[in-house]
Every structure is written in structure tokens, then in C-alpha cells.
Amino acid sequence: MYAIVDIETTGGYAGRHRVTEVAVFHHDGMQITDQFRTLINPERNVPYFITGLTGITDDMVRTAPTFEEVAREIHGWLKDRVFVAHNAHFDYSFLKKEFEDAGIQWSAKRLCTVRLGRKIIPGLDSYSLGRLAESLGIHIHERHRAGGDAEATAKIFDILLKRDMEGVIAKALKRNSGETILPPNLPKEEYETLPASAGVYYFHDANGQVIYVGKAINIRKRMAGHFSGDAREWNRSNIRNEIHHISYELTGSELIALILEAQEIRRLWPKYNLAQKFRTEEWGIYDYEDRNGYHRFVINAVARNTHPLITFSYKGDAWNFLWEKVNEFDLCPKLSGLQTAKGPCYAHQSGTCGGACEGKEKKKKYNQRVQKAIDSFFGDGETVAIIGRGRVREERSLVLVENGIYAGYGYMDTETQIGNLDTARQYVKAGKDNRMVQNIVNSFLMNPRGVEILSFDE
Questions:
Q1: Residue 458: helix, strand or coil by DSSP?
Q2: Coil, strand or helix: which one is 57?
Q3: Which domains does the chain have, with CATH numbers?
Q4: What share of the chain is helix, strand, coil (3-state, %, to 5)?
């Protein structure tokens, strides 16, 4: 019925690392019936820190079979059995990737002895393999080796089976129970109460510290994506193991979720928000003068110590913005970096470009229009209210932009009419503007989605 598994690997991420050892114990629901174990040649060096942890060296695996060579044998040990492991997602993700690389399709129902232990034997200080085994009087031979850890897990599972008076294991095996995808330390009850609404969510560790902040249009659906392994970055076992609780704040509006996420990351600096801490997806429009004296534009990723004329969160938004300026001021698409083909730009061929790309338009005349376009980048900006969904059906959200600068957000009931700027200000809690938030607002104004935009003339 059950295949209790443990593996050793060259690292913690199935997408980049390989298996070095596999052990499988069969259990028929009453007792352990058979076992299998083998070293695996990962076809790469075993890192020193892994050798220090497991004792597995390059010399030990050099003559071992590759996973592909024993894939069908291992598959035979797992086929048609419930997959059981301590922190099952880790072992399952590695084996699934190895099977895929060997051309074998494999999937199985999963049970995690961390999650089962929390439900069947509540109240322990720790549910790590070592501490759980110790609390149950199980001695682990060869700790951090697949055979020793798999044997201990099998003995733990045997005890859990015998102590499961409330059918916890049977419930966990039901389709769509959610137990098989959740992080080992996250209570299923918290997951089940997550809303299918827009907002910002927080992952907390065992001490309540926020370790990650994210945003979602549908928080519950986003969690399923995180934990099912569809998103590769969430296959990393370290963050999964550290998630003990989830909290959230509803925003109703996707735009407010984006703004709040950016603000909360800067306020809390969570350890796993590395991409947002060192944000790279920022794009700028730059200007320069070519060797013929024509002023040109180029769109590039914003790098340290560079000074773009204007920045955007997405390259497409910068591209669309520049196209608007090219059309508005009759500029050359080629000199604006929007056409890379050789020869004259297609706008010149159609008669809408004066021929600056061919040197036919005087550079002074052309450069004057370029300067007018640049000046328009820095106009006072619009004063608008962006009206979107609220947190409940009877509510609407409001994001206020004054003279092109983000001013804050708030909520009002659906009966409220916003007729002027002073009325809009009454419903908005002042927000701190920064470059990241400004980019979010600018990008949303370039491509508004499902909102109403009210313009105010001051």
C-alpha cells in the first residue's frame, strides 16, 4: 500500500540539483514488508557541505548507477503505492524531476509525516525527523543517509497508522484534500479560510516574523500555485519549511494590492523578498546625441548610477509611452529606438517621418521637436481618481493621483459620487510616494484594467 521514501541530493532545489541516494521501504498497512536502497551517480560533483552533512563523497557515487540506469527499478518500487516521506514535497519533487528526465511519467498520492505527526501526535516542540523519532523512542541509524532516515520514517509512519483513531490519514488521501501540497508546518485550517479575493498576504515563521510578502488578485488561488509546485521558485524547501502561518489584508483592487505590497516590502524587508528588495524590472527612457548630431532615444533596463529621463515598471509600458511621444511630436521611430531594421524607417517610407534617419531633415529642426517631447515627459501630470473594486460588494476603492504624483488610497460605499478633487481627498488616506510606487501607478495608468478613471481640472 505504502512506499516510505527518503533521498539524499546535491542541494535543495530539484530544478538545479540531483539525487545521490534513494531508499524505499514498503509497508502493507500493518508492518514493513520490504526495502530497497542504492547510491546514485549524480553526474556532477557532490558539494563539500553536502559531504559534511551526509558523508556521501564523490568517490562513493563515482561507480554508482545513474538515475536513468535504475529509473525503471525505482519506479517499480513506487508504482501503485502511496508515496510517504518526511517533508514529502521535497523528496517527491526531486524524484518526479529525475523520472521526467529519464522519460518516465510518474505521479502518486502523497502523505507527509510532518503534517500527519502534527495532527495525530499534537503538542510536540518540534516535528523534525530527529526530534519526532526521539520523542517516539526511535533510534536513527545513519542519520542523514537515505536508508537510515527512510527506516526511521517508516517506523514513525507505522506508529502514526496505529494511533490514527480519527481517520486523519484517510482524510489526507482524499482527492483535493489540500494536505499533499501544503507546507509541512502550515495548519490546513488556515489555508482553507484564505479568501478568493485581491489583497496582500504575509508568510510568518515559527516566531511570527514575516518572511515573505506577496500580492494576488485571488489569494487562495495564488497559494495553490505556490504550494503545488507550479511555480519553480516555490520548490525550494527552505521557505516551505519555514512557513508556519499566513495572514492577509484585502484590498479589493489589484492596483492597491500592488501599491501595498511595494510599501510593505520596504517597511518589513522580509528575508525571502529578494527580487523586490533588489528590483531589476525597472525600465528607463534615455536620450543621447549620435555622431551626426541628432538626438535619439533608447529604452534600457535601469542600472545603478544611470539617469533615465523617466522610468516604468515594465518594458512594454515604456515602449507604449515612447510610441505616443513619437506620434505626438512627429519623431522618427528609428532614431527613437523603436525600429532596428536597416535603411530608412517605415514611417519615412509612408511619408510621416521627415527623414531624419536618412539625414534629410535638418538636425536643428528635428532636435527641437525631440526637446519638446522631453519637456512633455515632465509636465504637471494629470490629477485623477482611479475607481475600482472594493473589499466587499457594497464598497469601491479609490486611488488618488495629484499632478501625476501618487497621493494615497481609500474606500467608499457604492452610493458615493466623486464630483471634485476635494471630495476625493476626503476618502483617501495619504500615502507616501516613492519611485517604485510611482512606477506602479504610471504603468497602471498606461494600461488600466477594470477601473474607472475620473479626471479633475484644477
A1: coil
A2: coil
A3: 2-173 (3.30.420.10), 188-276 (3.40.1440.10), 283-377 (no CATH), 384-455 (no CATH)
A4: 40, 20, 40
**Cell numbers of 414, please?**
457604492
CA distance 179 to 157: 16
Catalytic residue among 27, 75, 89, 144: 144
Looking at the chain, the whole-number percentage of residues with pLDDT higher than 70 is 92
The pTM of this model reads 0.61
* 47 touches 11 (CB < 8 A): yes
pLDDT at 199: 95
Instruction: List the one residue out of 449, 445, 440 whose CA is nearest residue 282.
Output: 440
Active site residue 226: no
> 177 falls in which pLDDT band (50, 70, 90)?
low
- Provide mean pLDDT across the span 90-106: 92
- Start-end of H helices in 229-304: 237-242, 254-268, 274-277
What is the structure's pLDDT at 231?
44
Count of Cβ atoms closer than 10 Å to residue 441 Cβ: 24
**Closest by alpha carbon to 446, among 269, 320, 287, 296?**
320
